[in-house]
Amino acid sequence: MPRIALATYDPGAEPGRDGDLPVLLRALSDAGAEAVAAHWDDPEVDWAGFDLVVIRSTWDYAWRAEEFVAWVERVERVTRLANPAAVVRWNTDKRYLGDLAAAGVPVVPTRYLAPGDAGEVSVRDLPDDHEFVVKPTFGAGARFAARYTPDERETAVGQLARMHDEGLTAMVQPYVAGIDVSGERALQFFGGRLLHASRKRAVLAPGTAYDADKVPHPDLESWTPTPAEVAVAERALAAVPEALELLYARVDLVDGDDGEPRVMELELIEPTLFLFLHPGSVDSVAAAILKAAAATA
Asked: Is the peptide bond before 91 cis (omega within 30 degrees of 0)?
């Protein structure tokens, strides 16, 4: 009987937000595994006692990235971890988009502004002819992300100043208008195969403050990906270091000005699986996890 840990976050007194977690625990148990949910930062957990640790919903890691990466590396030293520590480390910093672009993968154009790169940031550092987005290279759930018009550059400079004061590197991207038409598509892979896909509408509404709470998956619905979307997603995954060892991945796509899909983000750490939209995927996910656990033995 394989022992499997699904790593999650500690919600404290609040209800847990990972709806996939109880579904997966039940499916793994029904398939003959001993599966438990464990808080990634719980010092009492003996990670070496598991055949496989699967990162599932460690959704507070973006606020504690260094601590989280150190935990990932400790766990991998004592047991098998999915996804591997090298992949997790690479994916925590969204400057990976530059690596994908260098490999020929179509991505949303991105400029990075790190603290101290070129003195104090001003409106001259921001686009004056199109809407744009500012967000951190370390982040999740649209944390510290906002959409601006050229007339709002002074406000955006204030956001950049606060981010730099907190030691965060900022990403500046054109606002991809295709999101307002065709939404953002999430292609989910598990066990090396396309599992299912979903679509959501724009997360960043005009005028929403960067430090305001956002709905992470508005108007989420099931989606049938096009051949072009699958091709771009597969190119992105092929460009990931240690890609052959990926257990799971989610590729988020939007349409560029040319109407062709581009990678918005690559989620290789703790992507929501949206199993409530795709209940037929549960058995496939459980089977892939069990296969990975068996490979450890």
From this structure: no
